[in-house]
Write a structure and sequence with these properties.
alpha+beta; Beta-Lactamase; 6 strands; binds methionine sulfoxide
């Protein structure tokens, strides 16, 4: 499945008037995890109220202990502060990394902006080493922009 081919399905979920926001976010995780072979855990984290921490939102994949992540900690916490995409080809080479499972080899985190403010992120773990390209970044930026519209 090509990433581009998933855009219409993302659009359909976003504009579905019968679904609650969390259901939409979950459905997006599911579409991504099911259709892209190297996306093994797909989830959303959002800023937890006015605290400097992230809280886990809808996700698909193995349950994680990391429901709350302080800003600055791990790949997710760093993206909360940097406002930049973070692509990790090999997690063993990262010092500031929170391991969710020993099977994870790579990770990509893309921030979500609402009115210019970094309000959360999509986080994807892969069991494949170095799987993410510029195409993944562009596609996930598209997903984050769409998600921003329903938040
Ligand atoms: N590995 C992440 C933690 C979240 S789990 O991947 C679900 C990190 O370093 O921030």
């Amino acid at each position: 499945m090509k990433l581009e081919d998933l855009k219409p399905q993302i659009n359909t979920i976003i504009s579905d008037g019968t679904l609650a926001v969390d259901q939409k976010l979950y459905n997006i995780c599911k579409i991504l995890e099911e259709n892209i072979s190297y996306y093994d855990w797909v989830g959303f984290y959002f800023k937890n109220g006015d605290k400097n921490e992230l809280k886990l939102g809808p996700y698909v994949g193995e349950p994680t202990d990391h429901v709350i992540i302080p800003f600055g900690k791990g790949i997710c916490g760093q993206v909360a502060l940097s406002n930049q995409n973070f692509v990790v080809p090999d997690v063993t080479l990262q010092e500031n990394y929170i391991a969710c499972s020993i099977t994870v080899k790579a990770e990509i985190v893309i921030p979500i902006f609402k009115n210019g403010e970094n309000i959360g992120q999509i986080d994807i773990d892969s069991k494949t080493i170095d799987p993410f390209t510029e195409s993944d970044e562009q596609f996930l930026e598209f997903v984050c922009e769409k998600v921003s519209q329903i938040l």
